[in-house]
Amino acid sequence: MANDDGGVPLFKRDKKGKRVPEGEESRTPGRWYADFRSYRDVLRDDEASIQSLKTANEAEARKQAGEREQYYKAKRLGLDVSGMRQAEEFGEFADYVIDRKRRSRRFVSAYLDNMQKQLPNGRGGTLSDKTIRDHLNSVSNLFKYARARGTVPGGYNPVGDMVDKPTPEKYRPSWFEVYEGAALLESARTYEPPPDKHGLPFMYPLLATYLLTGGRDAEVKGLMVEEVVRYDQPVVIDGQTIRCGTLLVRPNKFRRLKTNAADRRVPLWPQLDEILGVYLSGPYAPDPDGLLFPSPRTGRMTHDIRKALDAIGKRVGFPAGEVRAHGLRHTYCATRIQTTDHGAPVSLYTVMEEMGHTSLDLIKQRYGHLQDNPHRSPVVEFRVEQWQPKLKDRLKLISVA
Questions:
Q1: Beta carbons within 8 Å of 1's beta carbon, 6+ residues apart
Q2: Model pLDDT for residues 230-289, shown as the tens digit of each residue
Q3: Do β-strands 340-341 and 344-345 pair in parallel, antiparallel, or remain unpaired?
Q4: How far apart, in whole angstroms, are the C-alpha atoms of residue 59 and residue 32?
Q5: How many of the other CB atoms lie within 10 Å of CB of 368?
Q6: Which residues are within 8 A (CB) of 216 and not within 5 positions of it... i.e. 6 or more apart?
Q7: Which residues pair with 24 in a beta bridge?
Q8: DSSP run (H or E) holding 294
Q9: Pseudo-torsion of CA 202, 208, 211, 213, nearest 10°?
Q10: The pLDDT of residue 79
C-alpha cells in the first residue's frame, strides 16, 4: 500500500512470511515492511531494499519508514556530484569515504589504526617516511573528491600546500645469490619448528615454493593442493632429461590475485617437484581439496611467518628481517633471467609472464641485474651440493645450531 504521506510503499507479511492483501492488514497479525527500492543508489552493500520495520503497529511503521526515507534523501543529496552543494562537514565526508573503503576490503584495517594513532607505529617507534607519505597521498585524494562534491572550496588541498613532505628512501631491492638461496633451503630443510601451537611444520616446502616460483606472498600462501600439477613424463631440454610440471596461480576461494595478469602458469621445477612430492606424501600432508599450506591452528591461510623466516635465516648468517617473501620473489626472477631455453638466454617475455607482470619495465629496472655468481642452467635450482666450497662457513653455522 502507498504511504499516505507520499512516502515509500508499505506492506505487511503474516507470520508465515506471505504478503497480506491490501485492506486486510488490520485483521491479520504480522510485521510491516517498507519498499526502499527507489533508493538503491544510496543503500549500503549490507542494506536490503525491502526492509523489515519490526513492528505490527501501522502508525509506528509509517513513522519508522518516514525517518529512514528522510535519511536516504539526505544521503542522496550528499552523493550528488552534478553541482548540488550539501551541508555536511568535511569530517563526516572523510568518515563516510573511509568507511566505504573499509567495507570494500580494498585496503587493510591497519590504515585506520595508523590514522587514529597518528605517528606511532605500535611497536614503540614511529611510522616510516614511506608510510607517512602513503597516508598523505590518501588524504590528498580525499580532498580531490571533496572538491568535486563542493564539500570544500575549489582548489583547496592542504596536503598539496605542504612543502616538507617526507621523502621515502629510494627502493633498494633485497635479493639473494643462488648459493645464498641454496643455503636458505638447506637451513629450512633441517629447521625444527617450536613444539608449540605456533610452529609451522611446512617451512621447508613453503620457502622452496617462494624461492622456486617467484610467487607473491599471498599467492603462495593461498595455493591449493589441486593447483600443483605434477607430470611424470620426462622432457629433454638442452640435452638434459627434466621432469617439469606446472603450478597454477589463479584466483580461488581463499584469496584473489593482485591483477588480471597474475592469473598464470609457472613451471614446477624438478627441485620443487621433489620437495613438494615428499611433503604431500608425508605426515603433514594437507587436505587434497584444501590449501597447500594451511594454518595448523585455523586451517585457513597462514599469515605471519616472519619469525620462522628469521629463525631460518639466522641459522645461515642472515640478520632478522633480511629473509622476506619479496626478496625470495626477486631472487627467483634474477635467477630465472640467467637460465637458458634451447641453448639461448630465456626470453624476458617468458620471465615477465611467470612473474605476473604486464610490462617488461619492472623486469629490466628492478630485477634485471647481474648476479655475482650467475648459474647458467635450463632450470631454476638452488641445490646446496653445487655450492659446497662457497657455503662451507654458512653450513658450519647450521651444524652448530
A1: 9, 10, 11, 22, 25
A2: 766 555 545 555 557 888 899 999 998 988 888 999 999 999 999 999 999 999 999 999
A3: antiparallel
A4: 10
A5: 15
A6: 258, 262, 325, 326, 329, 356
A7: none
A8: none
A9: -100
A10: 46
pTM of the model: 0.62
Three-class SS state of 291: strand
CA separation, residue 399 to residues 178, 182, 191, 385 (Å):
21, 16, 11, 16
| Maximum CA extent, the chain | 93
Angle, helices 306-314 vs 203-213, to 10°: value is 90
Residue 33, C-alpha cell as written in the block: 515492511
Is the distance from CB of 340 to CB of 376 less than 8 angstroms?
A: yes
Burial of 367 (0-12, 13-18, 19+ CB in 10 A): buried
Cα separation values, 219 from 98, 103, 223, Å: 27, 23, 6
Angle between helices 203-213 and 178-189 (to 10 degrees): 160
Residue 362, classed as helix, strand or coil, is helix
Between CA 330 and CA 322 the distance in angstroms is 13
The one-letter code for the residue type at 156 is Y
Pick left, alpha or beta for residue 222 (phi over 0 → left; psi -120 to 50 → alpha; otherwise beta): alpha
